[in-house]
Design a protein that fits this description.
mainly alpha; Cytochrome C Oxidase, Chain A; two-stranded antiparallel ribbon; about 60% helix
Length: about 375
């Protein structure tokens, strides 16, 4: 996705440099400055928006898809169940990756684009909700009736599913060209974007750190500090971004440098104060994480080779880091990575490098 989208942004930057320094007019047209009218005519500033958002929307999923992958691994491990609908999950990732390249115009409904073209972007944007919903329902079904182990990593992954749902619902509103007119460039967009992408990505990042910390450092993080970190972080995250939806509904624009200079926003000041309090507490709560991380890396209790009883190959390497990861020959994979609670097995997990028994079916 990066290989396909970033060159477009680089091209727009090159064209912009040419407009500024070489007298071309890709983006400039009929612009008057204090020194008079510019010579450049015939360009279109909307072209820059097209080139920018062709990167901008895939970039959201360049950040989000790894978060979904981390959560899939953590939820399956701590539910002690195979990931539900594994092939559908893979298909939905591919579908999201493809559709992310043909929805960029939903950022541009108010640029005066042809209504037919706007309708096309409405359709493709709503279409991306289908594979996203597949992932959500598969996460929930994986959790359903699982032998859930509530580690800090599991809590952060469940939190990611929560923010992915709540942020995605408001995305359906913004995907509609008619509804977007009243919400565009308001704090409603800020709240939506930061819940569905910012919070989801960060919660999954923390889930990955807590999950793979024993493999990285050979020690365990403090579970109680992890729980405190999670509950304050997700509470403050929602406390910051949910009120922004109400500010947007009230018409408060984003990107104003100081809203107190505009009397029409005075009645929203109290809600902004609440947001600021939640943001401050949320930032300070990260001290729990940093203390837990660095102290545990140096003095945490020693980790066993496979503390989460996970199936995947990284947990078969020795606790001590070594060149090549494994001593001797590389392990041979006999199973898929989600053989949890497999009938006939003495434990509720089977590592990938355990050979199939006679008569045992391969998944």
């Amino acid at each position: 996705m990066g290989l396909l989208s970033f060159p477009v942004l680089l091209s727009s930057a090159v064209l912009l440099i040419m407009d500024r320094h070489m007298g071309t007019s890709f983006f400039l047209s009929d612009i008057t400055t204090s020194n008079g009218a510019l010579d450049q005519t015939g360009g279109s500033p909307v072209l820059f928006e097209h080139l920018f958002w062709f990167l901008g929307h895939p970039e959201v999923y360049i950040i989000l898809l790894p978060a979904l992958g981390i959560s899939s691994e953590v939820i399956a491990t701590n539910s002690r169940k195979p990931i539900f609908g594994y092939r559908a999950m893979i298909g939905s990732i591919l579908a999201i990756g493809f559709l992310s390249f043909i929805v960029w115009g939903h950022h541009m409904f108010l640029t005066g684009m042809n209504p037919f073209l706007g309708g096309v972007f409405v359709f493709t944007t709503l279409l991306i909700a289908i594979p996203s919903a597949v992932k959500v329902f598969n996460y929930l079904t994986t959790l359903w009736k699982g032998n859930i182990v509530l580690t800090p990593a599991m809590l952060f992954s469940i939190g990611m599913v929560s923010t992915f749902i709540s942020g995605g619902v408001t995305g359906i509103i913004l995907a509609d060209a008619a509804l977007d007119i009243s919400q565009h460039d308001t704090y409603f967009v800020v709240g939506h974007f930061h819940i569905v992408m910012g919070m989801s990505a960060i919660l999954a990042m923390f889930a990955g750190v807590y999950h793979w910390f024993p493999k990285m450092y050979g020690r365990m993080m403090n579970k109680k500090l992890g729980f405190i970190h999670f509950w304050i972080t997700i509470t403050c995250g929602y406390g910051v971004f949910i009120p922004m939806h109400f500010l947007g509904e009230g018409g408060m624009p984003r990107r104003y440098y100081e809203n107190t200079n505009f009397p029409m926003f005075d009645h929203m000041l109290d809600l902004n104060v609440v947001i600021s309090i939640f943001a401050t507490v949320g930032v300070l709560s990260q001290l729990f994480f940093f203390w837990n991380f660095f102290y545990s890396a140096l003095r945490g209790p020693k980790a066993s080779q496979n503390p989460w009883r996970s199936n995947t190959l990284e947990w078969t390497t020795p606790v001590e880091h070594m060149h090549g990861n494994w001593p001797g020959d590389l392990p041979v994979v006999h199973r898929w990575p989600y053989d949890y609670n497999k009938p006939g097995q003495p434990e509720d997990f089977v590592l990938q490098n355990v050979p199939l028994e006679p008569g045992e079916e391969e998944h």
